[in-house]
Amino acid sequence: MFRDRAAPEETGTMTACVRTSDTESAHGPRAQQPHAPPPRKRFRIAGADVSASVAVFLIALPLSLGIALATGAPLQAGLVAAAVGGLVAGRLGGAPLQVSGPAAGLTVVTADLIQRYGWRTTCAITVLAGLAQVGLGCLRVARTALAVSPAVVHGMLAGIGVTIAVAQLHIVLGGTPQSSVTANLGALPAQLADLHPAALSISLLTLLALVLWPRLPGWAGRVARTVPAPLVAVTAATALAGFAHLRLDKVELPSWRSHALVGLPEGPVLGLVAAVLTVTLVCGVQSLLGAVAIDKLSGARPGAAPGVGRSDLDRELRGQGAANIVSGALGGLPIAGVAVRSVANVRAGAVSRNSTMLHGVWVVVAALLLVPVLELIPLAALAALVMAIGIQMVSLNHIRSVTRHREILVYVVTTLGVAVLGVLEGVATGVAVAVAVALHRLARTRITCEEDSEGVHHVHVRGQLTFLAVPRLSRCLHHIPQRAHAVVELDGSFMDHAAYETLNSWLDSHAAHGGSAEVTGRGGQRITEPAATAHCGCRPWTPWRNHQCDTPQEAPRADGREQHQLAKGISAFQQHTAPRVRGELARLAREGQQPVQLFLTCADSRVVTSMITSSGPGDLFVVRNVGNLVPLPGAESGDDSVAAAIEYAVDVLQVKSITVCGHSGCGAMQALLTTPTTGAPTPLKRWLRHALPSLERTVGQGLVGTEGEREGEGDASGPAGVGTSSASSASGTTSTPRIAGRAPVDVVEQLCLTNVVQQLEHLRAHEAVARRLAEGTIELHGMYFHVGEAQAYLLAESTEGGADGGGTATAGQASDEVFSQVTPTRPVEV
C-alpha cells in the first residue's frame, strides 16, 4: 500500500496523478501502469517573464535601430542582433537574467570595422570572434577577464561613450558625423553655424522626454513609468514629425530579400586578427562584467526567484560566442550583454531565462510585421537616443569610485586612449598604466621616525613593505636608542619575507638590550607581539589575544555587531585554520573520538581549555558549567547532564584521567559568597547549592569567619547567610589549600581552591568513577588556573606542607592540599 503511494513521486509521475484527478473522479481510479513512460512536462512560462519580456522589447527595439544607425550598418542588422541575442544567448548563456543584443559599447568598434573592411567582412569578423569566445569558454578562462582593473573597464566604456556622443551630436544638429572624435570636434563649430531646426527640434524633444519621463511625480508618474522612457521619447518624436509634416530623414528598412549576409573576410591578415581580438575582448569583458553585476542586482531584490542561481561565467562566454556566430552569419551586429536591458529585465520581475528569449521573439515579430511603422521614425530621434546613452556611459559614480581608490589616472588615460586611438589601443594603454601604477605603489614606501614628548619612538611605514624599502627601514630602526619603547606602525597590506626578517631581527635585538616594541597596523591596532615572545605557546593565538584581551570589551549593540564578529571569526577559521586541521578532523570523523581525559571546568569565557592545556581536536572531553561543580549522585536538584557526561566519559570513552579545574576570580564563587539565601529560588541559587559543601568547608578553615567578624556581621551570619555551626565542627579536620606554599590572597581565592578539592570528593562518589579508581585504571587531578598570571597549578599530595612534585590528588586524605606551580622546566602531563 505504501509502496504504491510512493511510486508516482519516485518515477516522476506525481504531476500526472494530480492532473488526472478529475478523470479519476468521473471514471474511477485507474490502475498504475508499472512500465508506463513518464508524462511529458508542460512548457510553462511565468506571467512575470511575459511582462518583463514586453518591457525589455520596448526598450530594445529603438535602441537596436539607433545603434545600427550609429555604426553605419544596415538597420536590419540591429534587429537581427537583438533577436539572436535574445534567442541564442538567452537559451545557451550562463546568466539567465542578462539580456544580450547590439551594445553601445561596440558601436565605435563596429563602425571602424565597417569603414575599413565593409559590411560583409565585418560580419565575418563577428563570426570569428564568436568562435574565439566559444574556445575561451571551453578553456574555462572566463573569470580571468574579471582580473582587468575596473578603472580600465570603466575608462573603456567612458571613451566609447564620448565617441558615440560626439558623433551623434552632428546628426542631432542635422549634419553628418566624421570618422573620428578629433575630426568630429574639429567640424563642430561649422556644424553649429549651419543648424537644421527640424532635426534639432525632434532631437530636443527626444532628449526632453528621456529626462523628464522617469521623473514624473505622484501616482500618475508611477503608472506612466511602466512604459519605458526610450519608447515614449521615440514615439513622441515620431508623432510630432508626422503631425507637423517635418521634412526629415527617416528609417529605411530595405526588403529582407536584399539583406546582406556574411562574406569571406577580405583584408590584411594582421588587421583582421587585431579586429577579431578587439571584438572578442570588448564583447567578452562587457558580457562577463554585466553578468556579475546582474547577479548582485537580482540577489538584492526582495522575493528573488529561488530557481535563479549565480551565473556560470564560462557558459555565458560560450553562449555569447554562439550568439555572435549566428548573428554574424545572418548579417547582424556583434552581440554582448547589455546593461540597460538587463537591469530593466530584473526590475520588471523576470524569474527565468524565458523573459530574455521571449523578448527575442517579439523583436522577430516586429521586424516582420511592423516595418511600415518603424519607417516613420525620424533618424534624428534615434540619434538623440544613442547620444543620451553615450553620455550615460560616462558615469559619475564610476569616476567617484576610481578617485576614491586612487586610480583616476588609469581611468583618464584609458578614456582618452579609446576616444583618440581606438578601443584596443586605448585598453592596452590603460592596462599598461594600471600595471605601472601598481608597481609604483609596490616600490614606493615612505618611512619616517619621530620621538614624542613621552620618549616613545614612532616608526611610520606608509605603503607596501618590500625588500626595496629594507635599507631605509633598517637605518630608521637602528636610530632608536637601546632600552627605549618603540611603536612600529605599518600602514600597508603587504610585507615580503626580507622585510619580515629585518623587522623581527630588530625586535629580537631590541628586546635583548632591554627595550620594548610593538607593531601596529593602520589606526594603532596591534598586529603582532615582540619577537622575544616568539617561543611562547600562545603565539598562534595572537589575533585572538589582540581581539579579546588587549582591546576593551564593547557593550552589546542592537545592530547585530556580535553576529558580524562571529561571521568574521568563522571566515578567518575557514581561510586560515581549516586547511591545517582538515586532515586531522577527517581522521577523527572516520575513527571517532578517543580522548585521554575528561576535563571539567568553569564556563568562564577567560578559561580556554585548549590553550592552557596545549591540546587539539580529539584530546579532551570537556564539560563546562558555572562554578565547575560536580553534583553528588542523588542530591536534591541534581543535574543529570554532568552525571551523564561523567558516565559516558568513564564507561564509554574509557578516559584515563579526570581533571577538575577551577580558576581565579570565579563569578560563581563570588555569587556564593554574596548572594543571600532569602528570596525566590532562582536557577542560579538552585545550581549553587551544589557548592554549599565547599562554602562550609571554607568557613571551617576560619578565613571566611574572620572576614565576617571584620565586617561586623557576627559569627552567626556568615557569607551568603550560611551559619558557621556546621562548619566549625569540621574545622579541626579540614585542611587549608595553598598555592605553591603561599596562603590564598582573599576569601574568593580560598573558596575557589577549596571548591576544586570538594568537587574531587564529589567525583569519587559517582559509581563509575569509584569502580575505575578501585581498579586503578583512572586518575583524578585538581587544577587551578590563575587568569591574571596566566599560570596553571596542579593539586599535589604533601605531608610536610610542601609540594612533593606531583602525583594523583587524594583529596581529604593529605594533611595539607598544595597546588604546585607548573613551569616550562617542570613538565607535567595534564
TrEMBL record:
- Show the segment(s) annotated as Disordered: 1-41, 699-738, 802-830
Q: Which Pfam families match?
A: Pro_CA, Sulfate_transp
Q: How does it sit in the membrane?
A: Multi-pass membrane protein
InterPro entries in the record, alphabetically? Carbonic_anhydrase, Carbonic_anhydrase_sf, SLC26A/SulP_dom, SLC26A/SulP_fam
Compartment list: Membrane
Q: Report the transmembrane regions from the record.
A: 50-70, 117-139, 151-175, 195-214, 226-248, 268-294, 408-439
Q: Which keywords does UniProt give here?
A: Membrane, Transmembrane, Transmembrane helix
UniProt lists compositionally biased (Low complexity) regions at: 716-736
Q: What is its main location?
A: membrane
Question: Which segments constitute the SLC26A/SulP transporter domain?
Answer: 48-413
Q: SUPFAM superfamilies attached here?
A: beta-carbonic anhydrase, cab
What does the UniProt function comment say about this protein?
A: Catalyzes the reversible hydration of carbon dioxide to form bicarbonate.
Q: Which family does it belong to?
A: Belongs to the beta-class carbonic anhydrase family.
Name this polypeptide is given = Transporter
